[in-house]
Amino acid sequence: MPNYRIFSNENKPLPQLQLNTYQSPSAAAPAEASASQAGRLFTAGATNSATLGLLGGSSIITIQLTNPAGSGRTAFISRISGGINVSLSLLSSFSGAMTIIRNGALTGPTTLTAANLNFASSNTSLMTVRSSTSASTGGTSILSMPLAAGPLEYNEFGDFIIPSGQSFTLTISGALSVAGVLASTANLVWWEV
């Protein structure tokens, strides 16, 4: 009787658990580690700060990562971070939100320079990164969630994949009902293959 592989084949081996003991330690690293070593892990971020009057208001920051058509690369979102900082708030009610849009449009964008996280690498990102102090319009809403004041960090490990001709738009927004100082910050980390 032939020994058929019912769970996997030579090209896709069956995943295994590692036993990590103090006598014989093993190490595993996420894809970001090898992307960084290859000089293909990048980051960009922006902040919008506002001093709000008696009637309150909002602070919005949007970052858009666009993979140009014909780039020959695919971008993978590694990490989303940032947050909303509230200071000098006088008995105000606060609301915050994070929104992710596919292929949204920006109003009055500013171009950001992506930084390579491997300081020894001269590689530059092929992606176009822009920011805006307005929420994006159009596109397809992928995720929308409320945020509390303070920092945020979501490790995506490549869950969001941006092929050429597509864009990923992240908006962080905060609002106060009365006077205060409000700052919204958004950062993206991604790798390119």
TrEMBL record:
Domain of life assignment: Bacteria
Protein's name in the database: BclA C-terminal domain-containing protein
